[in-house]
Specification:
alpha+beta; Nucleoside Triphosphate Pyrophosphohydrolase; 5-stranded mixed sheet; 5 helices; 23% helix; GDP-mannose pyrophosphatase; NUDIX_hydrolase_dom
Amino acid sequence: MVPVDHIPIAFSAGVPEDRWPDVRAAPHFRRWLEQATARFDLRRVVVRDVVFFGARVGFILVDADAWHDGRKVPGAALLRGDSVSVLVVLHCPGHAARTILTREPRLPVACPDLLALPAGMLEGGRLVSTALRELAEEVGTDLAVSADQMVELTTVWLSPGGCDEAITLYAVDLEIDEAAMRALDGRRTGNAAEHESIRLHVVDLDAIPRIGRSDAKTLLSYHLYRARDARRGVATQC
């Protein structure tokens, strides 16, 4: 195995030379490089393009000369790092279990009103702290959630044929009253510096499988949560 620091790394002309050290030092690039070196015969990496979010290194498109079992493997990969999401299950007297979905435009899938769970990128932090940060940013600081309430459902790769991203799915059960639940529904949130435009929707938890305009993390979190309930013998209605 060739040491990580001995892998030749080249940059295309479109990546500013003064940002090369930042790309090399980016946590998601370092992690991918270390894992790829340990598990493949990695001979060379070309950084084709980088999307910067201000000073932060965002998406990195690489093309690697990589081999496994004596055969060359497809080498294109989009490196964006890992993410987390949180299924917040609201328990309010007199209501079925409900949850909070964000509705926001998602240009990559040409969907102006995608409904999904609160989520965000890891950016070098810890999983649970990132999940709590995203809840505060996308839902609001008035929703009191602590780290010890968070239940990890699973971690999955979202598109391993082309992207490094793995997402860790969390769930949390919260007791809430009618007024607090109404205050959440329709709330506008989002990080203006990152051009986020989010509106919250409080919906019946069991509406998720048929709600449409959603994504894999939302559907998977729902089914894993309900499977966990079934194993514990918890009724589906609250």
